[in-house]
Specification:
The structure is a single chain. By secondary structure, the chain is an alpha/beta fold. The chain has 2 domains: about 70 residues, no CATH class; about 35 residues, no CATH class. It has 3 helices and 8 strands, in the order H-E-E-E-E-H-H-E-E-E-E. The strands form 2 sheets. The protein has a 4-stranded mixed sheet with strand order 1-2-4-3. A 4-stranded mixed sheet has the order 5-6-8-7, with no helix packed on it. The protein is elongated and about 70 Å long.
């Protein structure tokens, strides 16, 4: 049995996610502060691969409390992030190993299609189109 008056209730508008950066152990990571009506306490999570942070906060919490929370948990963050290896930024010009052979990345924005492997006078290339 469903009560008809519950059908007319609407969900409250979600609060916007606050995005900023936070420095931990020499890394500058994106930080998302998400307000959740279901949250009863602050929770801090590290995104997979250590590429970002996320804090879930209860409604109405002052921004100063979030800053204090981050300060208190700085050591915890440093310990966890130390276990995550730094990933090199993939960009044109760097070399990445493919089957044990270093290939230089070349970006060709004018062309379309799949990634191709070629060779020039300086060695193997990985050509990225698009």
């Amino acid at each position: 049995m469903t009560l008809g008056f519950f059908r007319n209730l609407t969900k409250p508008e979600p609060k916007p996610v606050v995005e900023r950066e936070h420095c931990v152990a020499g890394r500058t990571l994106p930080l998302k502060i998400v307000e959740s009506a279901r949250a009863r306490r602050l929770t801090l999570r590290i995104d997979s691969g250590g590429q970002g942070l996320r804090i879930t906060v209860p409604p109405g919490l002052r921004r100063g409390e979030v800053e204090k929370f981050l300060d208190r948990h700085q050591d915890w963050l440093e310990q966890r992030l130390a276990k995550v290896p730094m990933r090199p930024q993939v960009r044109p010009g760097i070399k990445i190993p493919i089957r044990g052979v270093p290939h230089r990345i070349v970006h060709e924005p004018a062309k379309r299609g799949t990634v191709t492997i070629a060779r020039d006078e300086r060695g193997p290339l990985l050509i990225i189109h698009g």
